[in-house]
Amino acid sequence: MLVLTRQACLRPCAITSGSNEKAKQLNDQFQIGSYHLTLKVTAVDEGIAKDAVSEPYSIGTFSFQKGCWLYFVAKGSTRALNMVGTILHSLQYSGLGGKRTTGYGRFTYEVVEEAPFLTLFKRKGTRDIWLSSAMAKDDEWHLSEGDNRFILQKRSGFVQSFTYSNTLKKKRDFYTFAAGSVFEKQFEGGIFDVSSGCNHPVYRYAKAFWLEV
Question: Residue 153: in which H helix or E strand, if any?
Fold first, then answer.
């Protein structure tokens, strides 16, 4: 396991995941990889499902060119960053995105402690841009007033937990300010429970990561 420093730039690589419209848009601009459409067929065990029919289906994949990477910045205490490392170590085997059960979305990663763009976080400015999607806590809404520019986006999805419910359940719909939103004043954001009343809470991380401009 890699031990992360107090602030590090993490670089996942060699990811192949499900179709993503944003990835296609980025590739049109930067030419960082290639998009493919692959035809698949589900193998059916006739001894278990005698009436089942193997139907072909298509999977869209995006493969990064050699030397292209996905970056994200993690900042926090040594304990928190160690936990991020543990999560990444596990995720690289299970995968990210869609169609993970068919082997997509696996990756490898490394830690880059002195990436050139990290100097941007030392600059001071008159406006603050969110680099993450986040949402203000109830006692912070007054800080979102003023000449701000933002887009609200809905976050949903299913709960990935065997102990939450006997059946697959959706998370409660939750709205956040999108990354790139601009505010006059900084606020922390929070961690919110998006469960729907089953066996345990399900948390959505919605704390802000700011860049002054």
Answer: strand 152-155
Q: Which residues pair with 126 in a beta bridge?
A: none
Report domain extents, the chain.
Answer: 7-40+53-117, 123-212
Q: pLDDT by residue (tens digit) across 102-147?
A: 777 788 888 877 777 778 888 888 888 888 889 988 888 887 777 8
Helix or strand (DSSP H, E) at 206: strand 203-207
> Under DSSP, is residue 134 helix (H, G, I), strand (E, B) or coil?
strand
59 CB contacts (<8 Å, ≥6 apart)? 18, 19, 37, 38, 40, 99, 102, 104
CB atoms within 10 A of CB 147: 8
Give me the residue label for tokens 């809905």: 154
Query: What's the average model confidence in pLDDT over 45-65?
Result: 67
Please report which helix (H) or strand (E) contains residue 60, including its range.
strand 56-64
Distance (Å, rounded) from C-alpha 73 to C-alpha 1? 18
Amino acid (one-letter) located at 6: R
161-194 pLDDT per residue, tens: 889 988 888 899 999 998 889 988 888 899 999 9
Distance, in Å, from the CA atom of 178 to the CA atom of 186, rounded to the nearest integer, reads: 15
